[in-house]
Amino acid sequence: MTNLTNNTVTKQFFDLHTTGIGYLNRIREVKVKNGKPYLSCTIAALRGNCQNAEYTYINCNVTGEKAKSLVEKCIEANKANKKILISFCVGDIYAETFTYSTGVKKGNVGINLKARLLKISSIKIDGELKYSDKIEHLENQSEPQHDEELSNVA
User: What is the C-alpha separation between 56 and 47, in angstroms, rounded?
Assistant: First the structure.
């Protein structure tokens, strides 16, 4: 969708943002043959009854600058198989089909959900709060900003 105003083109976009809580897994750098490598992860998003929650897996390219910084700081905790629970916002979620090539599902069609990880609002590692944008916001109102909130995450 574009608007023409006085010989200038203004691009407008429709944003599809999805928020939730889930476990951060499979943090990795994806190397592209003819492009720049990018940070990727999988979020096991929680849904359903709290007593019997189900997971929806979302493969994400980490695109938000603050989100990149926070995910990078979680790499060691992820390698140590710690439980990393995040509150997140993803954008432009879509489904992509694939065919299983091995195992009992060989030949069956599967679906991958893909999105861009835009924002992380909070991080808990093994139940301990390591980052919250609400706390950061309150701290920034009263004192100069310090970027050490997640410096010792693992």
Answer: 7
Say how far apart CA 131 and CA 87 lie, in whole Å. Answer: 10
What's the token pair of residue 89? 């916002």
39's CB contacts (< 8 A; 6+ apart) are 27, 28, 29, 30, 61, 62, 68, 71, 72
**Rounded distance between C-alpha atoms, residue 73 and residue 48, angstroms:** 29
Tell me phi and psi for residue 65, to 5 degrees: -60, -45
pLDDT tens track for 47-81 = 999 999 999 999 999 999 999 999 999 999 999 99
List domains and CATH numbers for the chain. Answer: 16-142 (2.40.50.140)
